């Protein structure tokens, strides 16, 4: 077999193995995958820099959305993915550390809490460590009781100005609509209220 043909076959086998493992041809540092977790105030993270143990720190995302790291100062973190924060810190400390390799690890998604109240089996607050939909949050709360008004579920969410917005959702329509609009991903601080059928 000619060497060039053997080489091409090896490359094809390697490519197949990478695809089977879930690898993609996208280069590191590209846009985060859809649904990647975004940090919230209250989350606890660990920053480490390869071969720079003195820079390893645990930090809590502050109410203003920032974190403080040596050499990097106050860094906006809320709303960013770990990869985005890594890039920001890397750029800031590059003047002090040659070719820094920065890693951000989420230790505790303490700030990502939602509340499910009303006619569910287990009402209360729930700490989320990954993107979670309305239907998934209701499942975490044990599902609806027989008295739940499925067509009048209320989602309470504060906008950027702190004003509370109320959205009324029909669960039957939401479960049939697989689009993002139909089964929206919850945000930190969201409150879901499931009213009783006899009251609404």
UniProtKB/TrEMBL annotation:
Residues 1-28 form the signal peptide. Residues 113-162 form the Soluble ligand binding domain. PROSITE patterns: TAT. Residues 32-106 form the Polysaccharide export protein N-terminal domain. Keywords: Signal. This is Polysaccharide biosynthesis/export family protein.
């Amino acid at each position: 077999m000619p060497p060039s043909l053997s080489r091409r076959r090896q490359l094809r086998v390697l490519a197949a193995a990478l695809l089977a493992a879930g690898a993609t041809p996208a280069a590191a540092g590209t846009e985060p995958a859809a649904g990647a977790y975004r940090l919230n105030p209250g989350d606890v993270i660990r920053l480490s820099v390869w071969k720079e143990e003195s820079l390893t720190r645990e930090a809590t995302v502050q109410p203003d959305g920032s974190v403080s790291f040596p050499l990097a100062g106050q860094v906006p973190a809320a709303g960013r993915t770990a990869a985005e924060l890594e890039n920001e810190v890397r750029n800031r400390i590059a003047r002090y550390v040659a070719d820094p390799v920065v890693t951000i690890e989420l230790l505790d998604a303490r700030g990502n809490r939602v509340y499910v109240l009303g006619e569910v089996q287990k009402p209360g607050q729930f700490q989320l460590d990954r993107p979670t939909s309305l239907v998934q949050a209701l499942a975490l709360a044990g599902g609806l009781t027989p008295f739940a008004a499925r067509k009048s579920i209320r989602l309470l969410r504060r906008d950027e100005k702190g004003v509370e917005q109320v959205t009324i959702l029909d669960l039957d329509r939401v479960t049939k609509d697989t689009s993002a609009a139909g089964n929206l991903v919850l945000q930190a601080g969201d409150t879901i209220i499931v009213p009783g059928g006899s009251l609404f």
